[in-house]
Amino acid sequence: MKLTTRRIAFAGILAAVYAALTIATSSFAYGPVQFRLAEALSVLCCFTPAAIPGMVVGCMAANLASFVSAWDFAIGSTATLLACLVTWFMSKALRPEAPLGGEAAAENHGAGRLVGRKLLLVFLVPLPTILFNTVIVGAEIAWFFDDRAFLSAWCLNGLSVGAGEAAVMYALGVPLLIWLLKDCRLYRQLCSI
After folding, report:
1. What is the pLDDT at residue 24?
2. Rounded distance, CA 59 to CA 119, Å?
3. Which pLDDT belongs to residue 129?
4. 3-class state of residue 163 by DSSP
5. Taking the alpha carbons of 84, 86, 90, 92 in that order, is the dihedral positive or negative?
6. DSSP string computed for 46-85
7. What pLDDT is attached to residue 101?
8. CB atoms within 10 A of CB 99
9. Disulfide check for 184: which of 7, 94, 102, 106 has CB 3.0–4.6 Å away?
10. How many CB atoms lie within 10 A of CB 91?
């Protein structure tokens, strides 16, 4: 990814929004049952690689406010990094293969109509975020907060974290992704970052 002023600015704004939204909703953004509303922004990784550092830095900043800030800073941010990377590579079918040159090009490359494989992919986009947080953050919480056997605590905490991630991603992330894919102007702008 070539560093440009536009990409750096986009990543910085995304990081600030992620951190602010997570800290503002801290009563339900941390702990065994998490509803991190800012995780819905991970769908932006479908359009530009600049979203990846934005999400990771935002997660790092937000995790400084968690109960185990030093560990969550590293472990939770790693889950976000892996999820964003997989989302970027997985969503290649949603991105244009050539620069967009107008409304017709946007229609042909993903924005506008969502049918068949692209519609299915829209509902698969949240899976990396859900799965990486289920496994990694579930293990982190089991390690630090549960005195039961690690494996059973990991499964239980993983399920609760995963359920919260799934709720956020499908209630907020998928509608955001569909809206961005259908708005030709925003679609072109995001893909050009």
Report:
1. 95
2. 28
3. 96
4. helix
5. positive
6. GT-TTHHHHHHHHHHHHHTTSTTHHHHHHHHHHHHHHHHH
7. 43
8. 10
9. 106
10. 21
Dist. CA 101–CA 124, nearest whole Å = 28
Question: What does DSSP assign to residue 18?
Answer: H
- pTM of the complete model: 0.85
Residues of the chain with pLDDT under 70: 95-116, 146-147
CATH of the domain at 46: 1.10.1760
Q: pLDDT at position 146, please?
A: 67
Closest by alpha carbon to 30, among 176, 125, 157? Answer: 157
**DSSP code at position 192:** T
pLDDT of 100 reads 41
52 near 81, Cβ under 8 Å?
yes
Rg for the chain (alpha carbons), in Å?
17
Number of domains in the chain: 1
| DSSP string covering 106-139 | HHHTTSS---HHHHHHHHHTTHHHHHHIIIIIHH
